[in-house]
Write a structure and sequence with these properties.
Length: about 475
């Protein structure tokens, strides 16, 4: 079926009975009654991207990307956005490897690496400032990793002071960082609060000791309570918890216990997302493959977690995120201001995201750029006074339109389109998949756009996949984690 007005309207006016997808009621020991979408999970649980970008990284065309084209895209985005930028700073060091982790990390207990890495971050930043030729306005800073709190409070102070000395800060700025509950100190929080940080994200994953041992991620409930209390003491108004379901040795009861403990601590935001099993990228994940829950159990974990959070005042936002009604993330979702980038969901939407540090990804809207993924090559490129570019992509007109619609779906669960524009650009969506999802009551599709229904929200990645022209290319041989 090719894309046309008739093809879209045929999906919209399909009046045949909705398929019986085998929804079954089940009862768990604590008395919660949940709808378990067993057959839908079986049908739609396929490998697929998480859509932090479009095109997704495996489909970037590096042949069109160079330092020259990247600088041109930077300058255009910088002036188009009124000199406002967001900064992502990758701090890759960890003292030990969390075996579930898919991030770019460097494992060491040697803290003398901090000073050298900061020097190179500031050198890279100076190259960006020279490219802009004017003082930028900082809308957002996010410190990610690795473990940002591997760095001492003094080191972070030196880094951020160096970054901000040649900038102005937007009146509505948001600064946030990722903290490990086991090593986030009062001094970290005091210094970062003084600089203007007001958001903290704590990597919890699971409170169960056996799960923590299996994934080599250890922190006690007392560690988390202390970090939360200190964060509130120093004025952090947004506290996020990262939780993962589908980890090795997790059970329905451990997920429920973890979510119950989280609700007691009442963070303002929660990222509750499925474990991404990608052992071909992260070999350490092979160590616990035999302990992973099956797809049905994993889906049940999500349904229980979602129900518990919803019953305790958390609102469902975007993909795998929940927030209290007073949190800015929920307000952005309500007013259409929610944005998604390589930093995840954010309330800020500047035209230019600059990623500093090993493996960091930058986004000028019309181009993507990723830095070298090893410390050695990252340092070498900067020593040669070159941007440490590993790969990138320059988006064409077709990709920009598809990107817009996928971003709308990920942030608002709906998008509108101009069919004439789609046809003129030769965009062909996977109409067979859209028809299936419409027939299963997950989406509505028509001449002017697409809307994800409540039942379809757990399958948002699949919906976006239907719009992903790169994914359905015969030349595509990429591997992704499972969507559910």
């Amino acid at each position: 079926m090719s894309l046309s007005l008739e093809s879209l309207n045929s999906i919209a006016r399909d009046e045949s009975p909705r398929r019986t997808v085998g929804l079954s009621q089940f009862h768990v020991a604590d008395g919660y009654n949940l709808i378990y979408m067993k057959n839908l999970i079986e049908k739609y649980n396929t490998p697929g991207p998480r859509y932090t970008s479009y095109p997704t990284v495996p489909h970037w065309d590096n042949d069109t990307h160079s330092e020259e084209t990247w600088k041109a895209a930077l300058k255009t985005a910088f002036w188009r956005g009124g000199k406002e930028i967001s900064l992502y700073i990758h701090l890759p060091f960890c003292e030990s490897l969390c075996t579930y982790c898919g991030c770019s990390t460097h494992i060491t207990k040697n803290h003398s690496v901090e000073e050298k890495y900061i020097d190179y971050l500031l050198k890279e930043w100076k190259m960006y400032l020279e490219t802009f030729t004017s003082m930028p306005v900082i809308k957002e800073i996010h410190l990610g990793g690795g473990t940002p709190t591997f760095f001492s409070a003094k080191s972070l102070d030196n880094l951020l002071t160096g970054l901000l000395q040649d900038c102005t800060v937007s009146p509505d700025f948001e600064f946030g960082f990722e903290g490990h509950p086991g090593n986030t100190t009062e001094e970290h929080l005091r210094i970062l609060s003084k600089i203007g940080f007001n958001r903290i994200s704590l990597g919890i994953q699971d409170f169960d000791p056996e799960v923590q041992k299996t994934i080599n991620r250890k922190q006690t409930l007392d560690d988390v309570v202390r970090a939360v209390e200190l964060s509130r003491k120093y004025g952090f108004t947004s506290i996020n918890f990262d939780l993962i379901y589908g980890l090795p040795k997790q059970t329905i009861s451990t997920i429920k216990a973890t979510v119950d403990q989280v609700i007691e601590l009442k963070p303002s935001r929660i990222a509750f997302y499925g474990y991404a099993h990608v052992p071909w990228i992260k070999p350490a994940q092979k160590s616990f493959e035999q302990f992973l829950p099956d797809a049905h159990t994993k889906a049940e974990m999500y349904q229980i977690g979602k129900t518990l959070l919803s019953n305790n005042g958390y609102m469902d936002i975007g993909m795998d995120h929940f927030a209290l009604p007073e949190d800015q993330l929920y307000k952005a979702f309500q007013n259409g201001g929610l944005h998604r980038s390589f930093m995840g969901y954010t309330t800020q939407h500047s035209n230019l995201l600059i990623g500093l540090g090993m493996s960091s990804i930058s986004d000028s809207w019309t181009a993507f750029n990723q830095n070298e993924k090893t410390l050695k090559t990252y340092y070498q490129r900067l020593d040669q006074n070159e941007f440490p570019i590993l790969r990138g992509h320059q988006l064409n007109a077709q990709e920009l339109v598809i990107r817009k619609h996928i971003l709308n779906l990920m942030c608002r669960f709906e998008t509108t389109w101009d069919l004439t524009e789609l046809l003129e650009l030769g965009i062909d969506y996977n109409l067979d998949l859209l028809t299936e999802m419409a027939h299963d009551g997950l989406i509505t599709v028509g001449e002017h756009g697409l809307k994800v229904l409540e039942e379809g929200k757990p399958f948002i990645r699949n919906v976006c996949m239907a719009l992903d022209a790169k994914l359905w290319s015969k030349a595509s041989k990429q591997r992704f984690s499972m969507t559910v």
